Amino acid sequence: MTIPFTGVPLHELGPLVRRIDEAGYDSVWSAESTDLDGFTPLVVAAEHSTRLRLATGIVNVYTRGPALLAQTAAALADVSDGRFVLGLGASSNVIVERWNSIPFRRPLAKVEETVEYLRAVLAGERGAGGFKLASPPEKPVPIVLAALRDRMLGLAARIADGAFTNFLPVGHTAQVVAAFGMPDKELACRFFSIQGPEDEALATAKRIFVAYATVPVYAEFFRWLGFDEDIDPLVAAWNAGDRKGALELAPEALVREIFLLGPVEEQRERLAEFERAGITTAVLALSCPPNELPALIDAFAPGHR
Fold this sequence. Notes:
Elements: E1 2-3, H1 14-22, E2 27-30, H2 40-47, E3 53-56, E4 59-60, H3 66-79, E5 84-89, H4 93-99, H5 107-122, E6 143-146, H6 150-159, E7 162-166, H7 173-180, E8 186-194, H8 198-213, H9 216-224, H10 228-239, H11 243-248, H12 252-258, H13 264-277, E9 281-287, H14 293-300
Parallel strand pairs: 1-2, 2-3, 3-5, 4-5, 5-6, 6-7, 7-8, 8-9
Helix pairs in contact: 3-5, 5-6, 9-10
């Protein structure tokens, strides 16, 4: 499950995390984009759960220095009694360069260098520059890499404990699974579950899709999957400042392949399709009014009938 939830203040997150924990979910994954940071919600989750894995999904390797990343990972491993998973990624030029004024260069190399540094420092060794943790974690912190296309998926397969992908069309899951090529490692994917009448849910899905698909890293991802003809006109309209036109060009068939729409049972059936195609961890992101969250947490729970 993705945390935090839209419309739920952080100080009210605890009871929902307890419900997730007791319902039998494997893990919670924090989102870090336009709302809260990726670590603080996991501190809350650590204090209100006993068995959940607590994963960042995803924090990037640019906006925090490597020593600070190591310190924060060690703190989360400590407060969670070893249940923390560090999800790392390159993010995008929008978040890194536009929002944080940090050059977005050599993302593949930057991710690899950061993982190498963190593996050493979290194991109690001295890192480049001389930093050493006074209290390193007692056991290794698993590292999962955000990966969309073949090169980053290959890097995740080689140096990480798993990969975390996003916005995956069910008909093209096999391409990502093959590029990762590690059936013994975790392959997680975030799925946006949108509740409500179908026409309203589809409109919401299209808005989310356009917001992501017009970011260069996602545009390249969809081109890599073979959706050039769908993506290029949309991106051109967006870059020309025609936001309404871009939204009108959102390809409905592709949006329906990516998002979870309709009744919960239909959404669960779609998740089962992704599982059969090779996704090992489905990370739900629920889009609904806050008062509907408890029932949806129960309805999506593993083993629910």
